[in-house]
């Protein structure tokens, strides 16, 4: 059984079709790039996998189950916005994660927070936007989850932090987990990916191994992306 | 999991309400001093302190209502839902934790009001009057069954009103846009439906128990029916919230 | 040590080249224990599965060997290392001779030029 199975998944917002009969199977032990320009349906897909949106048609199965309490135990999600209660400080947020997620690895979180130079007693509302993003990522990656769904994890951060994030994703890699990274900044992450999925106007237009793309086309994934999505 | 939710939910409201309670009690002390020992100083000050006390009371009520709405709307349907709704917790546990915490803070606000009353009495120098009353005699005369029924109707009535607001917000969120407007519309709709149901029940009952209505037994019966109806309607609201959150959640 | 990857070439083969070079140059000396797959992948900023595949290929070429519990080691076999040097030398010579042939030099001219160049840098 694939870790994630998506069948005929369609999501409509009124007359707008955000996802159009998406089918995907993702195995464990992989780092997958969910690539597409803004508005291609990346965030919508991740939200459905987290149970934050109800599909119009089709299904998402994680470990064979619809998104729900059981899947939420094993899915670590980095949303595209700050979602944490901002009156709490880092230490309190770690307590919060520890209370609700059995797989939260506190020592890992402490190490990451220290590496990134965050102040453990600073309330979140006093942090800069970038710092909030880093903290949120630390908490998500500190879980020993089976599925990581990261929506634009490298969007707004500086190059040094971006490198740290990518190294964190690599070091966190394990054979039992699948990591899905949604982004439009491909050249930064392509060397980290096993598989790439191109999403265009709500449809999967390509699902292939990154190495296969390089081998067959003699091009980088980034270059192929630019060709597929040429305006 | 409900316990863990409450562990975070209760302090989240307290963070805003406890400081207001303290302010309220301070204005009560001031009012007590002005009507008591300092009465002769200035009538103007009595008016000012009475206004302050009223303002503090209003602030508590407004803040409680705003926080109860906000804690539900923002953390389960707004930006914070992107964290809360991915916790391994069921929709019913979420809704229950919000309701219980709202209930608790409504009760605590009532306790705070009682405390301000005592404080006014204390500071005005009339505190000792309390002991002049023959409490034992008074307490023995109280019709406890009726009092408890009235209290239960009040408590469950408030809980039901909170759930009614939650249901209206959740229904409003189903709209594609103008969710606030839709929520207000839903609220008015629920109010109308509730009035109809309430009137229907009352009419049936008054028809059947017409002659007992003016006795104490009749009053108790009315309260009991009101209690059952209130709880039943509250449960319906709970299920509306739960159904929409579990099956129709669409965060924007 | 820096890792630099070219666009459009499978990362797997670039890793093999880089590690082969490190072994040939002695950056990883014979018998030395290699870092773990995860550490190598982190250092290079590449997917751990890709690194794993590259190491498996190096194992197949007998440049490295693994011991079940303690990890991967650079080969100690003189023969293999000598073979590696010869193979790399052959590859470089080929590249270099092809370029010189392209500008019209004959075999003799090339040998002469190499001799003179070696004498020059020794002087």
Task: Report on this structure.
The complex is a heterotrimer of chains A (231), B (252) and C (123). Chain A has 231 residues and is α/β, with parallel strands linked by helices. Chain A has a domain at 1-74 and 147-155 and 177-231: Rossmann fold (3-Layer(aba) Sandwich). Chain A has helices at 42-49, 69-72, 90-100, 106-115, 129-141, 159-172, 186-189, 210-217, 221-228, and strands at residues 4-13, 16-26, 30-35, 57-62, 75-78, 147-151, 178-183, 195-200, 203-209. Chain A is built from 9 helices and 9 strands. Helix content of chain A is 35%, strand content 26%. Chain B is an all-alpha fold and 252 residues long. Chain B has 2 domains: 1-132; 133-252, no CATH class. Chain B is 81% helix and 0% strand. Chain B starts with a helix and ends in a 5-residue tail after the last helix. Chain C folds into 2 domains: 11-76, Orthogonal Bundle (Arc Repressor Mutant, subunit A); 79-122. Chain C has helices at 11-25, 37-44, 48-60, 78-102, 107-122, and strands at residues 64-67, 71-74. In chain C, helix 1 (11-25) packs across helix 3 (48-60) and helix 2 (37-44) packs across helix 3 (48-60). The mean pLDDT of chain C is 87.
Pair with the most extensive interface?
Answer: A-B, 25 and 25 residues
The residue ranges of chain A in which pLDDT falls below 50 over 5 or more consecutive positions are none
Q: How many individual helices of chain A?
A: 9
Instruction: Please report the first level of CATH classification, the CATH class of the domain at 1-74 and 147-155 and 177-231 in chain A.
Output: Alpha Beta
Distance between the termini of chain A: 38 Å
Which structural class best describes the helix and strand composition of chain A? alpha/beta
**How much β-strand is present in the residues of chain A?**
25-35%
Q: What would you report as the Rg of chain A, rounded to the nearest angstrom?
A: 17 Å
Number of helices of chain C: 5
Give helix and strand order of chain C, one letter per element, not per position. Answer: HHHEEHH
The pLDDT mean of chain A sits at: 92
Q: In the CATH classification, which architecture of the largest domain in chain C applies?
A: Orthogonal Bundle
Average pLDDT over all residues of chain C: 87
Largest sheet of chain A: 6 strands, mixed
Give the strand order of the largest sheet of chain C, numbering strands 1, 2, ... along the chain. 1-2
């Amino acid at each position: 059984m694939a870790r994630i199975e998506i069948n005929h998944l369609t999501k409509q917002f009124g007359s707008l079709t955000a996802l159009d009969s998406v089918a995907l199977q993702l195995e464990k032990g992989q780092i997958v790039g969910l690539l597409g320009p803004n508005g291609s349906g990346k965030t919508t897909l991740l939200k459905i996998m987290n149970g934050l949106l109800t599909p119009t048609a089709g299904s998402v199965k994680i470990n064979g189950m619809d998104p729900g309490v059981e899947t939420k135990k094993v899915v670590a999600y980095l949303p595209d916005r700050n979602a944490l209660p901002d009156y709490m400080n880092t230490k309190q947020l770690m307590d919060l994660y520890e209370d609700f997620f059995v797989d939260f690895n506190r020592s890992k979180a402490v190490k990451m927070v220290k590496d990134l130079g965050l102040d453990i007693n600073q309330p979140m509302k006093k942090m800069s936007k970038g710092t909030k993003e880093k903290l949120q990522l630390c908490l998500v990656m500190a879980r020993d989850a089976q599925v990581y769904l990261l929506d634009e994890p490298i969007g707004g951060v500086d190059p040094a932090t971006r490198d740290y994030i990518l190294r964190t994703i690599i070091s966190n890699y394990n054979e039992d987990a699948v990591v899905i990274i949604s982004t439009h900044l491909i050249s930064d992450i392509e060397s980290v990916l096993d598989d790439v999925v191109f999403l265009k106007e709500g449809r999967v237009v390509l699902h292939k191994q990154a190495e296969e793309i390089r081998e067959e086309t003699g091009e980088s994934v980034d270059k192929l992306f630019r060709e597929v999505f040429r305006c | 999991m409900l316990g863990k939710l409450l562990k975070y939910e209760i302090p989240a409201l307290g963070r805003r309400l406890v400081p207001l309670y303290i302010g309220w009690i301070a204005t009560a002390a001031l009012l007590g001093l002005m009507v008591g020992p300092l009465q002769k100083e200035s009538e103007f000050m009595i008016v000012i302190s009475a206004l302050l006390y009223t303002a503090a009371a209003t602030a508590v009520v407004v803040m409680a209502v705003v926080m109860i709405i906000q804690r539900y709307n923002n953390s389960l349907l707004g930006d914070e839902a992107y964290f809360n709704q991915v916790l391994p917790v069921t929709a019913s546990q979420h809704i229950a934790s919000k309701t219980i915490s709202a209930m608790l803070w409504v009760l605590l606000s009532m306790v705070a009001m009682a405390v301000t009353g005592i404080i006014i009495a204390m500071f005005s120098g009339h505190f000792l009057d309390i002991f002049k009353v023959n409490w034992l005699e008074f307490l023995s005369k109280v019709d406890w069954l009726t009092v408890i029924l009235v209290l239960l109707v009040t408590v469950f009535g408030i809980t039901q009103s909170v759930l009614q607001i939650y249901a209206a917000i959740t229904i409003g969120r189903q709209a594609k846009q103008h969710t606030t407007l839709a929520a207000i519309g839903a609220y008015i709709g629920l109010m109308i439906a509730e009035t109809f149901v309430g009137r229907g029940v009352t009419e049936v009952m008054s028809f059947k128990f017409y002659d007992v209505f003016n006795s104490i037994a009749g009053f108790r019966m009315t309260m009991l029916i009101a209690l059952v109806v209130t709880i039943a309607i509250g449960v319906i609201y709970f299920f509306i919230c739960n159904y929409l959150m579990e099956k129709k959640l669409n965060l924007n | 040590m820096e890792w630099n990857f070219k666009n459009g070439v499978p990362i797997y083969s670039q890793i093999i080249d880089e590690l082969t070079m490190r072994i040939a140059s002695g950056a990883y000396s014979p018998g030395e224990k290699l870092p773990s797959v995860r550490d190598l992948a982190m250092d290079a900023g590449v997917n751990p599965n890709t690194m794993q595949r590259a190491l498996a290929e190096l194992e197949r070429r007998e440049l490295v060997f693994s011991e079940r519990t303690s990890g991967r080691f650079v080969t100690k076999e003189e023969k293999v290392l000598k073979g590696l040097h010869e193979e790399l030398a052959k590859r470089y010579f080929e590249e270099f001779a092809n370029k010189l042939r392209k500008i019209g030099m004959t075999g003799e001219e090339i040998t002469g030029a190499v001799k003179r160049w070696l004498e020059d840098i020794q002087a």
